[in-house]
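User: For my dataset I need records formatted as: sequence, then structure tokens, nothing else. Please produce one.
Assistant:
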Amino acid sequence: MTGMHRQMTGRVVIATHNKGKLVEMRELLAPHGVEAVSAGELNLPEPEETGTSFAANARIKAEAAAFAAGLPAIADDSGLVVDALDGAPGIYSARWAGATKDFRRAMERVEAGLRERDAFTPAQRTAHFVSVLCVAWPDGHREEFEGRVDGTLVWPPRGERGFGYDPMFLPDGFDLTFGEMSAEQKHGLPPLSHRARAFLKLAEACLGSR
């Protein structure tokens, strides 16, 4: 497959208006000598996320930014998939936080759903994070990479680091939540976070990863 991949060089657009994602993506791109500019900084419009899967929404965001900016664009669509909630919030993870992006409220909503289903033990509170990264070029070429990490949900949330649902997500095999971990712990090698795992695949394919 390697022959099929296209290398990214120079400037790329990170197709997000989410500050947490932007910081994380910039940290991941930094070692590769690629200059990252965000969709927000370029005043690109946010496309309507009408997809029914993480991959479809990542594709919508990446293609919109690539066409609007005339540069390669990377978009992430990611979310928390809770088994006891039949996969919710899933692709609606950000929407659960509402217009004000209140993830404390979103975490409370997840917790309320678990309690309604009498899910109190770790075995009943399994979940995973999924991240699909799509790289799109202005000429329509695109590539997609997926990462996931399994864990359980804790209550109350722990830690002020990370963003989104990180403080309630305890990755399997660890005793710190994503909200308690440093960026190095989440993104180091081998990468732990779903986005870092997807990014490693992207880097190997499109950034001539070292």
